[in-house]
């Protein structure tokens, strides 16, 4: 189960703060019908913020106990990033997002 925000490690809280900023920027860009900005900002967020933080999460994800606080903190943050990124990209990549959601739900057929 996901951890509450207060129990996340500081690095994971920082990632969620960046994610909240990304969601706000994407909504604003959608309101202006600026799809190019949505794509550019999403790419920058995933490439810069998520990539840098996930590099520091690797040991927790691969080595820590599955139910340990450190690993659950990382999984909670990365799950939020995935879910919100799919939400942001759904209007642009509807079929891809639908397939990703089906996979997350464990559906065997899209």
Give a structural overview:
It contains 4 helices and no strands. It has 110 residues and is mostly helical. The two termini are 25 Å apart. The model has no long low-confidence stretch (mean pLDDT 94).
Specify the helix fraction band: over 70%
Structure annotation, total helices: 4
Mean pLDDT: 94
Query: How many strands, what sense, and barrel or not for the largest sheet?
Result: none
Order of helices and strands: HHHH
Number of strands: 0
Keywords, please?
single chain, 110 residues, mainly alpha, 4 helices
Explain the layout of strands and helices.
Elements: H1 10-31, H2 35-63, H3 69-89, H4 94-105
Short description:
With 110 residues, this protein is an all-alpha fold. It is built from 4 helices and no strands.
